[in-house]
Write a structure and sequence with these properties.
The protein has 287 residues and is mainly alpha-helical. It is built from 13 helices and no strands. The protein has helices at residues 2-7, 40-45, 80-89, 92-106, 115-128, 133-144, 149-169, 175-194, 201-212, 221-228, 239-249, 260-272, 279-286.
Length: 287
C-alpha cells in the first residue's frame, strides 16, 4: 500500500504507512539484544507479550499485559481440597504408580503426545512450583533410561508430556525458581537429544512445540538457546541424529518473526551444511 500511494503521488500518513515486519519500533519485543532482568522486581515489571501478532503490523493504542508474577500455593497456605492434591503428588510412590499407569494405559494403541496430560502437568507446576520438581526429575531420569524395549516409547511419551508441562507451568515463576529449573532441565534435555530414536522423536518435538506455544520468546531465552545449539555440534555419521536436530530446531517457528537473530544464525549454519554428504540431512536443512 505504501508503494501504491507513492506511485500515484498520494500522501501516506498514520497507520497506513506502518509497514509490516521488522521495524525499529518493534525490535524491543524480539530476542535480539535481549538482556534478561537481574532482579526479581525487573522480572515482574517486564512487558512480556505472549502473542506473536503484537507489533508486527501496527501497535494498538493501548497495550495491556499482566505483571510477570503469580501467587502460588504454599504448604501452609492452601484450601483443604487443594491440600489433598498436593499431598498426593508429594508422595513419590504415588507419582511412580501414576506414571506407570500412564505408560500401561497406552500400550497396544498408536497414541500421540497427550495434550490433556500435558495440561494436567502444566497446572501442577503452575500452582505448586518447585515443590514437585525433584520428585518428577527423579522419575524423568528413570523414564529415559528404561531398559525394557517394549516400554521405551511409552516412557519417552510420558516424559515429554511432563517436561512440556514443567516449561509451560513455570511461566510466572520467580527468577530464582527458573534458574533452579533450567539448571536441572538442560542436562536432562542434552541426554534426551543425544539418544533420540525414530519412535521417540515426535514426542520430544511435541514437547518443545507445546512447551513454547504462545509465550514471549524472551521468557524462553534459555530453551531457545538450547535448541539453537543442537546444530552447533560436530556432524556425525549418524544420519538420524543429524536430521533429528534439525527437526527439533524447526520448533522455533513457534516464535515466528520474533527471533530474527536466531534465524540469521541458523541460516548461516544451514548454508555451511548444503554440501552435507547425506541427502536426508540436506532435505531437513532445506525445510
Amino acid at each position: 500500500l505504501h508503494e501504491i500511494l507513492y506511485h500515484i503521488n498520494k500522501p501516506c500518513t498514520g497507520d497506513v504507512c506502518c509497514c509490516p515486519g521488522d521495524r525499529e519500533d518493534n525490535l524491543w519485543i524480539t530476542i535480539n539484544d535481549y538482556k534478561p532482568p537481574t532482579t526479581q522486581l525487573e522480572w515482574e515489571q517486564a512487558c512480556f507479550l505472549d502473542k506473536c501478532f503484537h507489533g508486527y503490523y501496527k501497535w494498538p493504542k493501548i497495550i495491556k499485559y499482566p505483571m510477570n508474577k503469580r501467587e502460588r500455593y504454599t504448604k501452609g497456605n492452601m484450601p483443604e481440597h487443594v491440600a489433598i492434591l498436593y499431598n498426593r503428588f508429594m508422595d513419590k510412590n504415588f507419582i511412580y504408580q501414576l506414571i506407570q499407569y500412564m505408560i500401561i494405559e497406552d500400550e497396544g494403541f498408536e497414541i500421540n503426545f497427550n495434550i490433556h496430560r500435558f495440561r494436567m502437568f502444566k497446572g501442577l507446576f503452575r500452582n505448586f512450583g518447585l515443590d514437585l520438581l525433584d520428585h518428577f526429575m527423579e522419575q524423568l531420569n528413570l523414564l529415559i533410561h528404561e531398559k525394557a524395549k517394549e516400554k521405551q516409547e511409552g516412557c519417552h511419551r510420558v516424559a515429554a508430556e511432563i517436561v512440556a508441562g514443567m516449561i509451560r507451568g513455570s511461566k510466572y515463576w520467580t527468577l530464582e525458581m527458573l534458574e533452579e529449573l533450567w539448571q536441572k532441565l538442560i542436562p536432562f534435555l542434552n541426554e534426551v537429544c543425544a539418544n533420540l530414536s525414530p519412535e521417540t522423536l515426535s514426542y520430544w518435538g511435541a514437547c518443545f512445540k507445546f512447551g513454547m506455544e504462545d509465550l514471549d520468546p524472551r521468557r524462553m531465552h534459555r530453551l531457545i538457546e538450547f535448541i539453537r545449539t543442537l546444530i552447533n555440534g560436530e556432524t556425525t555419521v549418524n544420519t538420524f541424529l543429524e536430521t533429528s536436530r534439525w527437526f527439533l530446531v524447526l520448533k522455533l517457528t513457534n516464535f515466528e518473526w520474533r527471533v530474527p537473530a536466531i534465524w540469521c544464525a541458523i541460516n548461516e549454519h544451514a548454508k555451511e551444511m548444503l554440501d552435507h554428504p547425506f541427502k536426508a540431512v540436506r532435505e531437513h536443512i532445506a525445510k
